[in-house]
Amino acid sequence: MTANHKKKQWLIVIALAALPLIFFIGTICIGRYSVSIEDVFKSFATAITGTDLGVEQKTYTVVMEIRFQRAIQGLLVGGCLAVSGACFQSLFRNPLVSSGMLGVSNGAGFGAALSILLFNNMVMTSLFSFGFGILAVILAYLVGKVSGGTPTITLVLGGTIIQSIFSALLSLLKYMADPYSELPAITFWLMGSLASTKSAELVFSAVPMLVGLAGMILFRWRLNVLSMGDREAKTLGLNVGLNKGIVIGFATLATAGAVCISGVIGWVGLVVPHMCRMVIGSDNKWLIPASISIGACFMVFVDTICRTISGAEIPLGIVTAIVGGPFFIYLLKKTKGKNW
């Protein structure tokens, strides 16, 4: 390895670590009530030490009780959705796969809608959403095992079937919901938002998200082998079924944790991995950390747009689709499928 190559790798590592921090501080500063960087750091110091450093109470409240938690949530959700999409794209060798391919988003949406109808409580909504998201992936795996065909293909088909079933069940719940109270709540949740999450819900969802992220980082070298194909991976001595199951499990944990507190947010898991491949290539050693970093930055950036562009907050799913759709067209034109 040449000195220039090592230098380039270190620059990539530093950039991937620094970008989320820059976006984190930036989103706390930006808003209808602007906050200086100095006041942001003073608020952090006040919260840690308990010493009054001269920050106005209003500024401290905006920084620590409103924007800080929201920024942390945006970083986690964006990183989880993006890296899960990158893992699935490499695992199934399909550039059109995203983090919700195995039905986790549809299952989570159904669970959230069911909770809104039964309890109308945000904690229960998070629990139901997470539980049904995991259940959807388990069912997709079991459906895929019914057929004796190619495991990858049957798993994708199983995911498609489960997505359709939960989508139909969700439509049924929306049909049964009260059109003046429950239906708007379900619809808004499905469009995605970081606005209403409480500390307890964030802590609950952060555990599976962090476990999923750590697992995908640890398995990124094996993911390179799995992306070669089942036959090649077996030749190299890898237990294909076991390792695929572990990667899918970690990706599902991360995605379910993200969806249960943010709602269904599309395009992040599809577009961000392609953005990263354009810059650093398809080696999962670098692609996985890059997807976490860029996905976190992308989500924080989109959330900042959603809460500042108008008086009424715009749901995240709308903006990610508006930004992601045209950008994906640009990616297709730019790469012409050469990365695959």
Automatic annotation (TrEMBL):
Gene Ontology, cellular component aspect: plasma membrane
GO MF, one example: transmembrane transporter activity
One BP term from GO: siderophore-iron import into cell
Source species, domain of life: Bacteria
Entry keyword set: Cell membrane, Membrane, Transmembrane, Transmembrane helix, Transport
Topology of this chain in the membrane: Multi-pass membrane protein
Pfam families, A to Z: FecCD
Localization in the cell: Cell membrane
Chief localisation class: membrane
InterPro entries: ABC_BtuC-like (IPR037294), ABC_transptr_permease_BtuC (IPR000522)
Transmembrane segments: 12-35, 71-92, 99-119, 125-143, 155-173, 202-221, 246-272, 284-302, 314-332
Family stated for the protein in its record: Belongs to the binding-protein-dependent transport system permease family. FecCD subfamily.
Protein name as it appears in the record: Iron ABC transporter permease
Organism: Hominibacterium faecale
